[in-house]
Amino acid sequence: MLNIVIFGAPGSGKGTQSERIVEKYGVTHISTGDVLRAEIKKGTELGQTAQGYIEQGQLIPDSLMINILGCVLDSIKESKGVIFDGFPRTIPQAEALDKLLAERGQKVTVMIDLEVPEQILIARLINRGKQTGRADDNEETIKKRLQVYHTQTYPLIEWYKEKNKHYAVKGYGELDDILTDICAIIDTAQK
User: Fold this and answer.
1) What is the reported pLDDT for 44?
2) Which residues form the catalytic set?
3) b/e string for 142-169 if b means 16 or more Cβ within 10 A?
4) What is the distance between the alpha carbons of residues 46 and 176, in angstroms, rounded to a whole number?
5) DSSP string across 174-186
6) Integer Cα distance of 157 and 152 in angstroms
7) Fold entry, domain 2-190
8) pLDDT, tens only, 8-20
9) How far does CA 18 lie from the centroid of its chain?
10) Where are the domains of the chain?
11) pLDDT value of residue 75
């Protein structure tokens, strides 16, 4: 199984590149953000709890995300693997993901880190907010989200480097060039 963690700050293009990776490799895309937004739209208890955290620019508690992911993984029957988009975001989540996968006889194949300068990230997110109306894509919340990323999520880079699974990719420029760089890494990691 090909299990990819796609990583980067908010606005780095994780969702865009995930769609392209799914098309090329036939893996299942699990976006924790999409899963949470669906729960919020349905008005479930999970969705209401998650909405409170999201509106404050905070991360969802680990136990909540782990339970969600376990259910999603168990619901996938025929898949060549998974691309994890938006998870893990902390070292405890990465450890929990390793455990979840090991329980299913799998492991993370590679972690792709989309590197994008902060001024590009902010511009992308503000533009996305104008286009989609996403409430969390306003300048104040974006700055909070980037601060949370730098303090809580960024340490994952070192964690995955220690496991020889971290690969950095320039996450801005032509979409096809970014995908070409990602595919070169995935193809090498599969061998």
Assistant:
1) 81
2) 14, 89, 128, 134, 145
3) beebbebbeeebeebeebbeeeebbbbb
4) 37
5) -HHHHHHHHHHHH
6) 11
7) Rossmann fold (3.40.50)
8) 999 999 999 999 9
9) 9
10) 2-190
11) 81
